[in-house]
Specification:
Layout: H1 4-8, E1 10-14, H2 22-32, E2 39-42, E3 48-52, H3 56-68, E4 79-83, H4 91-105, H5 117-121, H6 129-158, H7 167-171, H8 175-180, E5 196-205, E6 213-220, E7 231-232, H9 242-257, E8 272-279, E9 286-292, H10 297-306, H11 310-315, H12 320-347, H13 350-355, H14 367-381, E10 396-402, E11 415-420, E12 434-437, E13 440-443, H15 454-467, E14 479-480, E15 516-517, H16 518-526, H17 538-541, E16 546-553, H18 559-567, E17 573-578, H19 581-593, E18 599-603, H20 606-617, E19 623-629, H21 638-645, E20 650-655
Parallel strand pairs: 9-10, 14-15, 16-17, 16-19, 17-18, 19-20
Antiparallel strand pairs: 1-3, 1-4, 2-3, 5-6, 5-8, 6-7, 8-9, 10-11, 12-13
């Protein structure tokens, strides 16, 4: 039943001394003549309070008394407002969730699909690529700059330190932060670039015209609260590589042939939950990990019987016929989505637009261009209709992860090694999966983070090397003015139609290094370091300074650290740190495999590792210190930020931002 106070409405009292106590407020209310209330709540250290009532009459009486009284609270006139009753924001979602569960338990299908698999996986795909980058940059500036300015200003304001507000914030709020945020870099890889994808096992309406649902493996196009829980095949997406699409169709057919039920998030029953795939064209390696729910004894016994057949599915060579099956599936999906878009555009009216935003006509979707790109990819990988020619030493490996919970697996839910196409030790807990980046080869674990866009990552790491005042391939960064302007759109995206051209959503890592400002080059020279592009290390030769110490915070598998270590003088020290111990072990192996001797990697919290590391190797005037931060999506821990900020001898900190 609804809360009576929410229906009657509360009285809110403002301009109350924030350090006052509830007992003091209760005495003041009694003195003013307000006694018929249900409860009184004073928020600690906040200049307001609330009063709840059992009836509307009591509330109106108290409001009249407080508005007419001249009695001040701690010398201040109290301002009174009515907290109007409002509907809880989650009520409609709860109703939708209950309806979804009721329909699913009764064997009924959910509502019609609200979006295509392309719109669900890459929402910006209908926009030209340049517009995507501009939108991403605006979002970054809003997230990084506006929120940062507001929070910093609020911190000083709440602390009562208006006079101590920094000059850069008080005089020119945008100047300092604007100069610290670089433009978005374009990616040279625009299609089929992801080397890791996570696919969901689920159901969708049958395609053969029969009623009911059928098992499917792919991406979920809706959400739980919208009631659209269907899973659609990924064959029409352009960011998923062809090799992974072939493997998805293989495992989907395996699931259907063996009658393995997908996991249902509504009933919390089923077997197959998720399939994680990693693939590399350069090394030919393919890694698959099944996430399964084994709380049902009968399904667990069925899985033990069936999983022995999975290696046969993994090690079969990729064929042209399978690639053409992917294209045929994509063509069917493109025709279906194009018809749905046309129907939605024909039925859209101003009235219906206001009632249902999803019914608004969308820009024309050139599904045919996606099919052309997919056909070109098929011809590229299978030029003569033969099987995919994997490089020598290519490895295919299989992992299994058990998770019986209701949400998502955590780091404690281990991905257990099950099978590999190459010989491994009897007690081995992993098989090699390799990715090539620049001229180095990295071994990546099943749960480790690795840049999903390799070509974009190369551009990103080249920019990192430039920012760290390190020569990158002997090229001198072009010096420009203090303002950095966005580069022209990359050639890979030129020549395509401006409206309706198929261009992928902007990726995390960009392409083409941007020019470095003159001011930063001068700063490097002034502080004893090398200006970008100097052929010799004059300061080092004169004995004035040591080679820099580069800190790779949140190093993961060591991609940034190993890449920089291979481009730095041997005297330079690269130190990587990460909370994930398996990722750190991968980083150590990658450093050894690529003959990197001037890098070390430490497992632990950055806020605990950094202070000792900086005291050991970062004393002022002896070594330049540069930190590179590539944190998880949740951001750095505040203690880690504090440790970096307190390193006064550190020249600069460079970070990446993922939208």
């Amino acid at each position: 039943s609804p809360d009576p106070a929410a229906i009657v409405g509360r009285l809110l009292l403002f301009d109350i001394a924030k350090h006052s106590m509830k007992k003091e407020l209760v005495k003041w209310l009694a003195k003013a003549g307000v006694t018929t209330y249900k409860s009184c709540k004073k928020i600690p250290k906040k200049p307001y309070a609330s009063i709840a009532f059992d009836s509307l009459a009591d509330r109106n009486k108290a409001e009249a008394i407080l508005n007419d009284t001249d009695l001040a609270f701690r010398g201040r006139k109290v301002r009174v407002e009515v907290d109007r009753p409002h509907k809880r924001r989650n009520d409609s979602k709860r109703v939708q969730a209950d309806e979804v569960k009721r329909r699913r338990l009764n064997g009924q299908a959910g509502p019609a699909a609200t979006k295509s698999v392309v719109d669900a996986t890459t929402p910006l795909w209908r926009k030209p690529y340049r517009e995507q980058l501009e939108l991403k940059e605006r979002n970054m500036r809003n997230d990084c700059l506006l929120k940062a300015r507001k929070r910093i200003s609020k911190t000083y304001r709440n602390a009562g330190k208006h006079g101590e507000t920094p000059k850069w914030l008080r005089g020119n709020p945008a100047g300092f932060l604007e100069s610290a945020l670089r433009p978005v870099l374009a990616s040279p890889a625009l299609t089929f670039y992801r080397n890791k994808c996570e696919f969901t096992f689920g159901t969708r309406p049958r395609r053969d015209g029969e009623a009911g649902m059928e098992a499917e493996l792919g991406f979920r196009t809706g959400s739980f609260y919208s009631g659209d829980l269907r899973v659609e095949t990924p064959t029409l997406t352009y960011n998923v590589p062809l090799v992974q699409k072939i493997m998805v169709l293989r495992f989907r057919d395996f699931m259907r042939a063996n009658d393995l039920p997908p996991y249902d998030n509504v009933t919390n029953a089923g077997l197959l939950r998720m399939l994680t795939l990693r693939s590399s064209y350069e090394t030919g390696d393919i890694l698959a990990c099944f996430t399964v729910c084994l709380k049902d004894a009968a399904l667990a016994a069925r899985w033990d019987e069936v999983k022995a057949r999975l290696p046969g599915v993994m090690e079969a060579p990729l064929t042209r016929g399978e690639a053409e099956a992917v294209y045929a599936s994509a063509a069917v999906e493109a025709e279906r989505y194009a018809a749905a878009d046309a129907a939605a555009a024909a039925s859209a009216t101003p009235e219906s637009d206001n009632a249902n935003p999803e019914a608004k006509p969308k820009p024309e979707a050139p599904y045919g261009v996606i099919l052309e790109q997919l056909q070109a990819e098929v011809d590229k990988i299978f030029p003569k209709g033969e099987a995919f020619a994997a490089p020598p030493g290519a490895c295919r490996s299989l992992y299994i992860q058990r998770y019986d919970g209701v949400s998502f697996p955590s780091e404690s839910d281990v991905m257990e090694f099950y099978w590999s196409s190459v010989a491994t030790d009897a007690d081995s807990t992993a098989a090699p999966f390799r990715q090539r980046l620049f001229d180095a080869v990295f071994q990546v674990g099943p749960a480790a983070f690795f840049q999903t866009n390799l070509q974009g990552a190369e551009v990103l790491f080249g920019k990192v090397a430039e920012y760290a005042l390190v020569e990158s391939d002997g090229a001198k960064p072009e010096a420009t003015g203090a303002d950095i302007k966005p580069e022209p759109e990359p050639k890979a995206a030129e020549g395509e139609p401006d409206a309706g051209g198929v261009k992928p959503e902007a990726t995390d890592a960009g392409a083409k290094p941007q020019p470095q400002p003159e001011a930063e080059a001068a700063e490097g020279e002034a502080k004893g370091g090398e200006a970008p592009g100097d052929e010799g290390t004059k300061a080092a030769e004169a004995g004035e300074t040591k080679a820099p110490l580069v800190l790779d915070v949140c190093c993961g598998t060591g991609t940034i650290g190993v890449t920089l270590a291979r481009r730095l003088p041997p005297a330079t020290c690269v130190v990587g740190m990460d909370l994930c111990a398996p990722a750190v072990e991968d980083a150590k192996r990658n450093a050894a495999a690529n003959n990197v001797t001037n890098a070390e990697f430490i497992a632990g919290k950055a806020e605990e590792v950094l202070p000792g590391m900086l005291r050991r190797d970062g004393t002022r005037g002896q070594r330049r210190v540069v930190a590179v931060v590539d944190p998880p999506r949740g951001g750095l821990h505040r203690e880690c930020l504090k440790a970096i900020r307190e390193a006064h001898f550190m020249e600069r900190v460079h970070g990446t931002y993922r939208n």
